[in-house]
Design a protein that fits this description.
134 residues, alpha+beta, three-stranded antiparallel β-sheet, two-stranded antiparallel ribbon, 5 helices
């Protein structure tokens, strides 16, 4: 994760290599320079019971790598398959672009970027599921 810049609001929490770190009273910005550090903003975290849609399940699987609960090697192929499955359903150009960026980041081992790209699809998925429920 070399070169990751985190901007934290007051009292915002982040998981770094298994330790929860809480920011102080003021906004802060810091760079993570250690390669392969496991970083997860807790505001971005999806709880297991919230992983109840296809996109959220892929996000959750990605965050397990960032939290250190699974290894990148164990997750990579499963995530590639899941992203491919999403690309079969989310066929609009914008979704395809997010999925392509997620795939590229995954192949580069940039799991935080994978999560960021996939989370951008959650509002679209919510709209599609709400529309289909009518």
């Amino acid at each position: 994760m070399s070169g990751l810049v985190l901007k934290l609001g007051p009292r915002e929490r982040v998981l770094i290599n298994g330790a929860v770190v809480e920011n102080g009273e003021r906004r802060a910005r810091f760079s993570i320079v250690t390669p392969d550090a496991n970083i997860l903003r807790l505001r971005d975290a999806i709880h297991p019971e919230e992983a109840n849609t296809p996109v959220r399940r892929v996000c959750y699987a990605t965050q397990l790598v960032l939290s250190g609960d699974t290894t990148p090697e164990n997750a990579r192929m499963q995530l590639l398959r899941r992203i491919e499955e999403l690309s079969q359903v989310l066929t609009d150009a914008d979704s395809r672009a997010h999925l392509a960026r997620a795939t590229d980041a995954l192949l580069e081992g940039q799991f935080y970027q994978v999560l960021k790209c996939l989370r951008a699809l959650i509002p679209r998925e919510d709209r599609l599921l709400a529309h289909g429920a009518r």
